[in-house]
């Protein structure tokens, strides 16, 4: 099982970024998928998920700004992040929902700063 996140970087407040997560070793189309993030000094938190039939759910902190999507043909899940705020700075990781805690990837760093 592998989750390989990419697409992070440095962005100014109010900017946008899309992160991706390529998966392998799981029956992707049969799993609900989620995005999680861990800010410095804080615990990892769930922020969004997409079900096998495409239903989505979001944490209140990102609702209306972030959009999760999936491409079953590519076994990849995406997170489009708009109107980014400094408090969105974190390492972003994907996993199944609920997560398989033995198989976290390295994540991708998103830094929101002017």
Structural overview:
This protein is an all-beta fold and 114 residues long. Helices cover 0% and strands 48% of the residues. It has strands spanning 2-6, 9-11, 17-24, 33-38, 45-50, 56-58, 66-71, 76-81, 90-96, 108-112. The strands form 2 sheets. The chain has a 6-stranded mixed sheet with strand order 2-10-9-4-5-6, with no helix packed on it. A 4-stranded antiparallel sheet has the order 1-3-8-7, with no helix packed on it. A hairpin with a 6-residue loop joins β4 and β5. The chain is globular and about 40 Å long. The mean pLDDT is 97.
Topology:
Blueprint lengths: L1 E5 L2 E3 L5 E8 L8 E6 L6 E6 L5 E3 L7 E6 L4 E6 L8 E7 L11 E5 L2
Parallel strand pairs: 2-10
Antiparallel strand pairs: 1-3, 3-8, 4-5, 4-9, 5-6, 7-8, 9-10
Distance between the termini: 37 Å
Secondary structure: helix percent: under 10%
Q: Give a quick account of the main beta sheet: strands, pairing sense, barrel closure.
A: 6 strands, mixed
- N-to-C order of helices and strands: EEEEEEEEEE
- What is the overall silhouette? globular
Structural class label: mainly beta
The total count of strands amounts to 10
Radius of gyration: 13 Å
How many helices? The count is: 0
Low-pLDDT segments, ≥5 res: none
- DSSP strand content: over 45%
Q: Whole-number average pLDDT?
A: 97
**Arrangement of strands in the largest sheet:** 2-10-9-4-5-6
Oligomer: single chain
């Amino acid at each position: 099982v592998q989750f390989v996140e990419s697409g992070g970087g440095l962005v100014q407040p109010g900017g946008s970024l899309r992160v991706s997560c390529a998966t392998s070793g799981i029956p992707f189309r049969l799993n609900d998928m989620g995005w999680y993030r861990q800010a410095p000094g804080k615990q990892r938190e769930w922020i969004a998920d997409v079900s096998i039939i495409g239903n989505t759910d979001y944490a209140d902190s990102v609702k209306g700004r972030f959009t999760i999507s999936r491409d079953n043909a590519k076994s990849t899940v995406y997170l489009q992040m708009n109107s980014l705020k400094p408090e969105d700075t974190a390492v972003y990781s994907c996993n199944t929902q609920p997560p398989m805690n033995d198989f976290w990837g390295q994540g991708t760093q998103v830094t929101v700063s002017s």
